[in-house]
Amino acid sequence: MYCSKCGRQLPEGVTVCPDCSGDAPQVKAEKVSEPVLKAPGKFSKSYAAIFTALLVFPASICIAVDLVFDKYDYWFGYVVGALAVVWVLSVFPILRITPPLVTALICFGSIMCYVFYIASKTGHFIGFSKVALPMFVLTAFFIALDVALIGGQKIRGLHIFSFLSLECALYLICLEATIDNLRHGAIDLKWSVIAACGFISVIAVMEAFSYVGRINRK
């Protein structure tokens, strides 16, 4: 607490400033600056934990398959990078721990870093736009679809995670198809199919839990 007349700091509970000739000053509270990072709510943390667990499952499968069967040109970086971008785009805005502008910059930066990784991995910096543009369009479409269906409460409960898992599977398949077309001029799906199978397993588990929940509520 500070005296508004002379500016002296006053202890709590004091209403008269001893330096102002007995006048009763208007006492104002010290302004507390808002933290840069905000703490996420319970729903946001629960959503982030479940969605992160969903992404860990297909990522671990792809890493294990790649390390066991491919000794030379490891491709699991495509999967892990894509899942990291999906996590940033799907979870980070929900957490709301940073201002909207900072959140948008983080999402955009994650996409650009991943596209740069693809370009450096494939050596096709000239074809940068052939990967970036389609994936930007697909990402924008999925975000709009999420806002319409999930934000509009057309999809609820565990069906949300099934829907997001389906989007992740389609995203990875489209990503590998785009990369194959850039590198070889033909589509030869491999690692994305393995990751998609992991997401299909997640969808089956989520739908089973949802079905059991409906039965128990009857």
Word description of this protein:
The chain has helices at 42-69, 76-95, 100-122, 128-149, 159-183, 191-217; strands at residues 2-3, 27-28. It has six helices and two strands. A two-stranded antiparallel sheet has the order 1-2. 67% of the residues lie in helices and 2% in strands. It has 218 residues and is mainly alpha-helical.
* Dominant shape: extended
Got a strand count?
Answer: 2
Span between termini:
58 Å
Series of secondary-structure elements, N-terminal to C-terminal: EEHHHHHH
Number of helices: 6
Q: Which strand order spans the largest sheet, edge to edge or round the barrel?
A: 1-2
Mean pLDDT: 76
Low-confidence stretches: 24-32
Task: Work out the radius of gyration.
Answer: 26 Å
Key terms for this structure?
218 residues, mainly alpha, two-stranded antiparallel sheet, 6 helices
Topology:
Blueprint: E1 2-3, E2 27-28, H1 42-69, H2 76-95, H3 100-122, H4 128-149, H5 159-183, H6 191-217
Antiparallel strand pairs: 1-2
Helix pairs in contact: 1-2, 1-6, 2-3, 2-5, 3-4, 4-5, 5-6
Short synopsis of the structure:
The chain is mainly α. It contains six helices and two strands, in the order ββαααααα.
